[in-house]
Design a protein that fits this description.
The complex is a heterotrimer. By secondary structure, chain B is α+β, with helices and mostly antiparallel strands. Chain B has helices at about 15-45, 75-110, 115-130, 135-145, 175-205, 215-230, 255-280, 285-295, 300-325, 340-350, 355-385; strands spanning about 155, 160-165, 165-170, 170, 235-240, 240-245, 245-250, 250-255. In chain B, helix 2 (about 75-110) packs across helix 7 (about 255-280), helix 5 runs antiparallel to helix 6 and helix 7 (about 255-280) crosses helix 9. By secondary structure, chain C is an all-alpha fold. Helices cover about 70% and strands about 0% of the residues of chain C. Chain C has helices at about 20-25, 25-35, 40-65, 75-80, 90-100, 110-125, 130-150, 170-195, 200-215, 215-230, 240-265, 270-275, 280-310, 325-330, 340-370. Classes of the chains: A alpha/beta, B alpha+beta, C mainly alpha.
Chain lengths: ~250, ~375, ~375
Amino acid sequence: MTDNVSNNLAIELRNVGKWYGQFHALKDINLNVKQGERMVLCGPSGSGKSTMIRCVNRLEEYQEGEIIVDGVLLDDSVKNIAAIRSEVGMVFQQFNLFPHLRVIDNLTLGPIDVRQMPRKEAEDLAMHYLERVKIAEQAMKYPSQLSGGQQQRVAIARALCMGPKIMLFDEPTSALDPEMIKEVLDVMVSLAEEGMTMVCVTHEMAFARNVADTVVFMEDGVIIEAAPPAEFFDSPKSERTRSFLSQILTH
Amino acid sequence: MAHDTGDSGFLQREGVRAAIIQIVVVGLLITAILYLANNVAENLARQGIATGFGFLDNPTEWDVGEAILPHDRADPYWWTFVVGVANTLYVAALSLVLITVIGIAVGTSRVSNNWLLSQFASAYVEVFRNVPLILQIIFWYTVTREFPHIRDAVNFGDVLLLSNRGANFPLLTDAPGYFFGVVAFLIGIVATILTGRYSEHHRSKTGKPIAVWPFAILFLLILPLTIWALLGAPTELNNPVPSKFGVKGGGSISPEFIALLLGLSMHYGAQVGEIVRSGIESVPPGQTEAARAIGLKERRIFSKVILPQTLRVAIPPTASQYMSAVRNSSLAVAIGYPELFSIGSTTINQAGQAVEVMVIMLGVYLVISLVIAAVMNFFNHLVAFKT
Amino acid sequence: MTHDPVLDRARPVRRRSPMEEKLGWFGPIYYWMSKNLFSSFWNSVVSLICIFILYKIVPFIVDWALLSSMWFAETGEDCREATGACWAVIPVKYRVMFFGVYPYEEHWRPVLAIGLYALAVAITCTHRFWRLKLLLVVWAVTLAIFLMLMWGGIFGLEFVPTTQWGGLPLTFLIFSSSMFLGMPIAIALALGRQSKMPVIRILSVFTIELTRTIPLPMILFFAAIILPLFLPQGMEIDQLLRVALGIAFYFGCFQAEVLRGGFQAVPKGQYEAADAIGLPYWKKTFKIILPQVFRITIPSVMNGVIAGFKDTTMVIIVGLFDLLTATQAVVSDPEWRRYFTEAYLFVALVYFLFTFAMSKYSQYLERLFSFGRR
């Protein structure tokens, strides 16, 4: 039931619905993310964008519809969830680095514990990604000794160490001081340039305009508009998109 | 142009005022101490009670009851105090172990996925935290005292006898089979712990997990049993044999001891359980999310992400509960278990050396507290966040 | 195995699986059970053990406490007819438990005193009445009337010496005195501990640390038996007062540490702003710093208060006749001795209700000051 249609689709959401108690957080969501696509989700707070990507790696459960990740149906089955989580990496707004472990141990925990990789190999892998995010010299430090921007870059490297095919970003720069946003965005841009499938919830519109293949606007749990950046920013179709853009682009 | 407010005399200067206040305080303190000491001396002299610690060499002339060290009436007072301290340490050590076990079990059960288990644990905590400790101790004491007379003792297959004199149970004889079997078991505990650590170390080096449970069975079960069998497989036990005058043989624990141990362990076990639960819940949910996102299994998330962070938060308040438990072992005075405070108060009654005895008890509790504090500080440093 | 606050944040309306559809109304129950009780092998084992324990215990308790029990009886002998609990001990003996050896005909006085006390507590707990001077007046008046009612000797009331006071009024009296005497001690010691004057600081630290090492029973013993030695001949302080002072001092030293944490948590800018305005030390402390300290430390302070209430039971050691001691006296009566479980359970319930109410109030206060996770 999941194979033929989704061959080059990384993520498919079909008629997805989610409730928090009585609150209808996601309403009949239909969205496809192709392999290698860079998608940006934007919208006012409470619109359901974070909820949606958190459903993709089962940090939230959905009640209606289907979510298919890389050909695997996301349901209650522990096997499916584990398979999907190994394909999908996530970067959080609050970084969520493990404070009791050094940077390098934060990165090697997953490969050693889940992929049963020997420590030496895991550490080489970790150093490779730390260099990628330009923070190799901090490998032996503890997260509390790093700045916010540095921590977030470590978090990205940690996600990359599990070799995901898809990267989800949940407002990665919202908790950062302005001068540190650029260093994180630079890393995300370089990831995009390498062809990683990315779904990114963010308010950084410059990033969206320059990097995204598709920009999606959500409000009140519904997808209002989805279009390539040029079309989205210059000639938005919906009135609500226009009003949102006018609010967010005035600075 | 700066001008003087006019009343900045010598007395208004900050440093001087502080100095004067302190001198006055010290002066008052010394005066008070001298005055009180004088009162004490007068009052004691009037009652014909000598001062000084000389009384410690006098024979005690009363019995202590139960003790883990030998004692009789002719022993000097200082030995009686030593016996009391030994009893305190004995009940304190056992209850600290029980408290830790109960605390961890209850705390982790409260956050368990299993609804029944977490409700049980919640009920336990609510009941045993909120009922005052001394009420619990008195209750258990009354329970054990209401057991039947030794003649009609509650009998669990001649292995365990419960009566109003406490519990009687069989002891292992000193046959070599038992002795070395027990030694092997104790070594086995150490071996299992070491195996666990090695397994974790191996896993973090190579990624491949080693199952510990086969080794546990080997060290804790198979090896001790083998040694026991090789050395003659003794099956004789030193059984408690009820007779007209009591019980011959076997080991026993008194109702006082049982009550104190149960009361302290269950009450402070509940307190520590709360601390453990609060520690686990204090770990930000984002940690669990990030660990899940990487793909760690639930059990590994608990042991590698949640538990280390819980320990850091939970150790200081647990240390303070330990110290509270040891201090409140003095409630034994309400039920007559002869630990340090009971003995102290009896001594004051019998020999009248109130101040000296208080000083001695003070000193002992101080030392015990400091030792516990030092040990817990050591553990604290072991698990502290390194920054 | 850990409880996941994320997934549990809401219980969403779920689409039912086909199995549930078949089970109809039982479906959601089945789903809940499979998630919470039987989600894995070990989980199921644990659940089965729990269910087995419940199966053995619940009928036994229901039978003992309710079905086979006797609620009213004249004497202990009558109660032997019941195979279960003899709750009759409570209606027969509750006066002794609650009022101790206070003269029987005068029991209306402690009842009135307790009622007044409850009123004062209610006023103190209501946010609207939180003005220091008002509360002080309320409590001063309550204390005066309380003592007058209990002591008597004026207004035609028969005199009852403190040695005959007992039970609940005594517990309340000891509890409130130790709180009201203890908090000023706590504030004084906490302030002393961070004084810039070395003598004061060292004295405070020494006092706090020493008192916290000593078991409370020892302090009570000291207050009751040893303190008279320190007084000049002829001077006597009422034993009740001495014991209350002992508990107050103990309580104060522990709360001093709690307050210290609060002092450290008040942002340095507050001290600096007050200094910049030119506020002298005592004004600064009482008008600016202390209110903030209390706001921050409410949960821990309330914890200490609840612990203090439970600690009042320790006066049994020095022979004061509080609620617990009175219950023990009831149990010593040979006629009712075998029903000690019922009596102790009852008294435990009373204490439980008080501490439960206090912790609920503490949670209410926390919410009022918006503490904890929202």
